[in-house]
Amino acid sequence: MKAALIFSGGMDSTTLLYDMIHEGYEVSALTFDYCQRHKKEIRCAEKTCAKLHIPHKLVGVPVLNDLAPSSLTRASWDVPEGNYAEETMKQTVVPNRNMVFLSLAASYAIGTGAPHLFYAAHAGDHAIYPDCRPAFVSAMATALHLCDWNDLVLHAPYLWMSKGDIVKKGLELGVNYADTWSCYKGEELSCGKCGACTERLEAFEQAGAADPLKYQD
Question: CATH number, domain at 112?
Fold first, then answer.
């Protein structure tokens, strides 16, 4: 069964890619370049798809850099440090990003004859990202069901899973997390302090495993 995946190159979508392959899907991956400062995740996505022989398309969406101000798209903004539950983390929200991505990915899925579209929203995102919450996923699933003559089914299988549980699943599937990227600061080594790094390190601790990435400190 054909399926499209929104694939950032981060931990969650990489785990989902391995999971989909394990479940027997014929996967095509779609990665978005929205001028994010952490472009290293794009290189990780390309590397993983090449390794797994997965068709991969990189789509430029530079308009988000102009229309959706965030510390992920504006180099002049500081990337906040700490846990996602903190109010300052709202600076990392790229307004309406996932609706844009899902809409474009829907066009891609329909165009390639894939009746299934996956993205890796998970429970840890609920506190800070509105476009990763169950109500949003449900609304988008309805919209994508109606957007074409052929039915398109939206899947967010990790919606109620913690990042720690996702890491556990990934390790069982043989995911090489050294080929993934999380840090928002876009430097050579992960900072270990931004929200993405904090959540990543907590996830590995919950999974009882060591993160293979090197950190600045």
Answer: 3.40.50.620
User: What is the 3-state composition of the chain as percent helix, strand, coil, each rounded to the nearest 5?
Assistant: 45, 15, 40
The pLDDT tens digits along the chain (217 residues) read 999 999 999 999 999 999 999 999 999 999 999 989 888 999 999 999 999 999 999 999 999 888 888 888 777 777 777 676 666 677 777 889 999 999 999 999 999 999 999 999 998 776 678 888 999 999 999 999 999 998 999 999 999 999 999 999 999 999 999 999 999 988 899 999 998 999 999 999 999 999 999 999 7
CA distance 122 to 109: 22
Residue 214 resides in a domain? no
- Note down the domain range covering 114: 2-207
